[in-house]
Amino acid sequence: MHAMVLKKLKADLEWTDLADPQPGAGEIRVKVVACGVCRTDLHVVDGELPDPKVPIIPGHEIVGRIDVVGAGVDGLRVGERVGIPWLGHTCGVCPYCLGGKENLCDRPVFTGYTRDGGFATSMIADARFAFPLGEVGSDVALAPLLCAGLIGWRSLVIAGDGKKLGLYGFGAAAHIVAQVAKWQARSVFAFTRPGDVATQAFAMGLGATWAGDSDKMPPESLDAAIIFATLGDLVPLALKAVRKGGRVVCAGIHMSDIPSFPYQLLWEERQLVSVANLTRQDGIDFLHLAPEIGIVTETTRYPLNQANQALADLRDGRFEGAAVLVP
Ligand SMILES: [Zn+2]
Ligand SMILES: [Zn+2]
């Protein structure tokens, strides 16, 4: 198999030939046909997340076909199209797993971070954490749903059912969430990097009610806001933009420090929460709804061996929507 491997933190990924991996009991081998590039991959490469496995093959928005089924795997067959998400394994016995919050598992394994992911032609997954995808939709179009879509969905649910929703950072996740929110008859207020008129136009094209600079206040106060961008400075701005009792959801795995702010911004029962990872139930719920919503993902394709370019373009905001690697 071939893979783009991170051999050292803060370095380029290296094109590497590796022996074909063999699935153990309870695992499947997946021939990767598309893998989305997520901001979390940048955090892994940049060494911003604790205790990564190094060397590591990043990538956790994987669409592939099963080509080997390990012992003891039920309900999946060779040739079936599956999606492999960020949550790669959970312990099943900690209080969080037992309490229906496996996203907070004490001993989780994450695809493309603590186990090898999908920037490769082949990968091994725990069969219990693979989602059957059926045959509707193209491989490339589906890939961003596996993280941007899933985390976006979880964030939207946690944001509550307010009608006026702010989205800070209009990248892969927000462009999917905006479509879901519109389908739910909500109004979307899109906040981008100041002066990024191209992304503001992109948001308006997806049905946003308003789009503007993230350092500006929206024309009316919001019921909830989700922050997908990694800038802690956005937290007080978002708190200021939501109404009394409104909720601000931080959806990223990493954020720069949040500056101190007057208590007045939190007062009147405003809430500030974070969203971590996903549960398998999130995946089942969202992937079931996605075709009904008719989500159309905006994707830019890169050959697998151009993963470094895709990461650089993501870092610099050089495309709208999501980048997808194709082996
Ligand atoms: Zn657990
Ligand atoms: Zn991700």
How would you characterize the overall build of this protein?
- With 327 residues, the chain is α/β, with parallel strands linked by helices.
- The chain has nine helices and 17 strands.
- Helix 4 packs across helix 8.
- The longest helix is centred in the last third of the chain and has 14 residues.
- Bound molecules: zinc ion (ZN) (2 copies).
- The site of one zinc ion (ZN) has 8 residues, from helix 2.
- One zinc ion binds next to helix 2.
Question: What labels describe this entry?
Answer:
327 residues; globular; 27% strand; binds zinc ion; seven-stranded mixed sheet; six-stranded parallel sheet; alpha/beta; 9 helices
Task: Explain briefly what this protein structure is.
24% of the residues lie in helices and 27% in strands. The protein is α/β, with parallel strands linked by helices. The site of one zinc ion has 8 residues, from helix 2.
* DSSP strand tally: 17
The outline comes out as: globular
Q: CA-to-CA gap between the ends?
A: 10 Å
Summarize the biggest pleated sheet. Answer: 7 strands, mixed
Task: Bin the strand percentage.
Answer: 25-35%
The percent range for helix content is 10-25%
Q: Please work out how many helical segments DSSP would assign.
A: 9
How do the SSEs run, as a string of H and E? EEEHEEEHEEEHHEHEHEEHEEHEHE
- Mean residue pLDDT: 97
Which structural class matches the secondary elements?
alpha/beta
Rg result: 19 Å
Bound molecules: zinc ion
Runs with pLDDT <50, length 5+? none
Oligomer: single chain
